[in-house]
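Hi L.,

You mentioned the student needs an example of a multi-chain input paired with its predicted structure. This one should do, with 427 residues in total across all chains.
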Amino acid sequence: MNSTFLISQADPRPMYLQLMEQICQRIAVGDWPAGHELPSIRALAADVRVSVITVKRAYLELERQNVIVTRQGKGSFVADGADLGLRLRAQELSDHLRAVASLSLLLGVSVEEVSQRLGQMRDELTREKS
Amino acid sequence: MSAPVFELSGVGKSYPFFKLEGVRIQLAPGQIMGFIGANGAGKSTTIRILMGLIAQQCGEVRLLGHPMPEGQALAKRDVAFVSEEMRLYSGATVEQHMQFVASVVPHWDATYAQQLLRRFNLQPQQKTKGLSHGQRMKALVLLALARRPRLLVLDEPMTGLDPVARQEILAELMDIVTDEERSILFSSHNTQDVEQVSDQITFIDRGRIIESRDKESFLERWRRLQLEVPAGKPLPPFAGVIDVTSSGRTAVVTTKAFTPELPAFYNQAGAVVREVQHMTLEEIFVAEVMSSREDPS
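Structure written out for the whole complex:
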């Protein structure tokens, strides 16, 4: 149990998404710079104790988002400009905000109330994580 | 694609009060298969047929390429089997068991066996009649693992184990598959035991395989949607939806073939999609069993 990856069955998100997020986190904070070699799929699976297929799925998705590159027979590496992938997530945030805007218009909820509730949710999340 | 580690097709066996029918499963090398079913669903019977312990009445079984049950002597050189029901010689110590197994199997890894003794906190000099259930299962797993089998078959290995013993065993199982040629089949009536580590999931109920596929596509296809539906208007049907439960203007839809078109389809029908949820393997298992029991095709 010396892995610093945390995969929880209590988390409603699929395990591959949890794993992707934690890998992106390592890239974002600079622990894994561009060109850094990721652990092999089987090694990471054994380390985190999740199935090989779950790790494979996470790596494939990260590849699709240009966060990592996989070279046949050599392994997987953090892509040059991996923050490009993180920019994709910024796009994702914009999409969600757009949905929030449209729903709040529909329900007649004011921007102030939306922002207040968003603040509350962030507080809750921070508390859950601490 | 390399040859499957084992392969069952059209396998059946009848008993006065139980019938196993049309069993078809296979496993590729390097993978872990979780074999899930309620008590009495046919897991142990299937595993016993695979191991050649009982003969099927129809269908074909191949284990590491050998036809079963005829080829079992050859197949079993590279297959280790642990069942919850196995007993040890009560008057002999753990170490004597290790020496005995080492003397009769083709490849015994003594160094690995010593490591496992320490990792499992087992005392080599202890007679096995004094072992707790958890220690006995760990001893059985040790005797199987140190043979370095190409296939490890475990029938209900986690039943009745405390969380610490379960984690100790799971960790060793995960270690095995760092080697791409080694595979594991393990059965359980508890989906949580197998959800995390399995690559392939097979569900069995009442003697029939109800689903067998890779875990990711399993989890991906099943979703639950919560909808706000327009008053007095029934939801139009959509392929793959297996259950709709309504109360007032709220409906919960369960689908086994989710696509992004589904929420769009409901939106067009005038409903508002409030939530799209993933389901746990346990929820999927229960839904599969219920829907297969309703539809006796």
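You could point out the following to them. The first strand of chain A starts at residue 68 and ends at 71. The radius of gyration of chain A is 18 Å.

Best wishes,
N.
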